[in-house]
Amino acid sequence: MSEQVEKAEQAAQAEQTEQVAVQPPELDGYECLACGYVYDPDKGDESRQVAPGTAFPELSITWRCPVCGAKKAAFKNIGSVKKVSGFRENLGYGFGVNTMTPSQKNLLIFGAMGIAVLFFLSLYGLK
Ligand SMILES: [Zn+2]
Question: What pLDDT, in 10s, does the model give residues 49-74?
Fold first, then answer.
C-alpha cells in the first residue's frame, strides 16, 4: 500500500469519528405521526421553552406536539435531521446523493456549477 493511500484512509477515518462526535445518536429528529411535525433537538421547541440541544427522550412526559398536541408516544425516531437530507428510510433511493456528507454535496454542486460556467464561457470563444 502506498503512503498516499494510507494517509487518505487515515483522513477519512478521522472525518468519520468527527462526524460521530458532532451528531450523537440521541440527538435524532422525531416526527409526529399525527401531523408530520419534526422535532429538531438542535432547535428545541420555543413555544414550550425547550432549550436548543434538548434530546427528544429528555423532553418532559407532558410535552406535546406544538402543532397538533399529540403525545410523545405519537412520535417516531426518524434519525438525524442534520447530517443527511431526507429521512433515514429514503437513503437507499436516488443516485446515492442522499448518503453524501454536506461537504461532498458542496463539492458536487459547486463542481457542476464551475463546469457549467466554463461551458458558457466557451460559447463566447465560438464567435
Ligand atoms: Zn403533531
Answer: 999 999 999 999 999 999 999 999 99
Cell representation of residue 3:
503512503
Distance from C-alpha of 56 to C-alpha of 24, rounded to nearest angstrom = 12
Q: Which of the four CATH numbers 1.20.1250.20, 2.20.28.10, 2.60.40.10, 3.40.50.300 does domain 22-83 have? A: 2.20.28.10
CA max distance for the chain:
70
CA–centroid distance, residue 33 to ligand 1 (Å): 7
pTM: predicted TM-score of the whole model, two decimal places: 0.47
Torsion over CA: 19, 32, 65, 86 (sign): positive
Residue 81's nearest CA partner among 63, 56, 59 is 56
Ligand 1 center–CA 69 separation, angstroms:
6
Say if residues 90 and 98 touch (Cβ distance below 8 Å). Answer: yes
